[in-house]
């Protein structure tokens, strides 16, 4: 039961004045999040143009900076298909990384997910299986990857709370029926970020917060940055124990 800080995601620079978009900024921000209670960090590396990138030059510099700033902290990255917008480029990039993250998120909704998972496994990188729908959960079960991943990431994008809870419950049911017993990290985004932190606390699951998922604190005010979001989530998990 941990808080993972997702410090930037695919957000653009105008989303928040303290959105970290280069390796040094990510390292400083990551260290502040760890001090605020984050056990892990999830980042989207950026190229010189500020756009997301899986290229070794961007990924290696980012992971190395975070390792130096946050020794002993698990570092995770995204493999979202939109980043390289080409499945072959994604696979070539993963095979070319020198500074390896501890784990990488893979969206089961994406066509190349099985190939990406196998590429990560061959490199010794843990897999965070991203499930955003009941169909994603069913696909994970059908691929027989449920027992071979580091963690299940239930990530809900629906913004109406009833709809979001329905999807989350459906994913949980599929996993239970399949007998998949992996640790779960549950999170929402924007309007549902804090309700899902509360839900994770009630289920003794891990959760994540950060500017990737939203910029508002539980009281609706804008957070000063990722560390403030992390601190608020850590307090909720502590209260739920």
From TrEMBL:
It holds the Pfam family BKACE. Gene3D superfamilies: Aldolase class I. GO terms for molecular function: 3-keto-5-aminohexanoate cleavage activity. InterPro entries: Aldolase_TIM, BKACE. It comes from the Bacteria. PANTHER family: 3-KETO-5-AMINOHEXANOATE CLEAVAGE ENZYME-RELATED (PTHR37418), 3-KETO-5-AMINOHEXANOATE CLEAVAGE PROTEIN (PTHR37418:SF1). This is 3-keto-5-aminohexanoate cleavage enzyme. It comes from Mesorhizobium helmanticense.
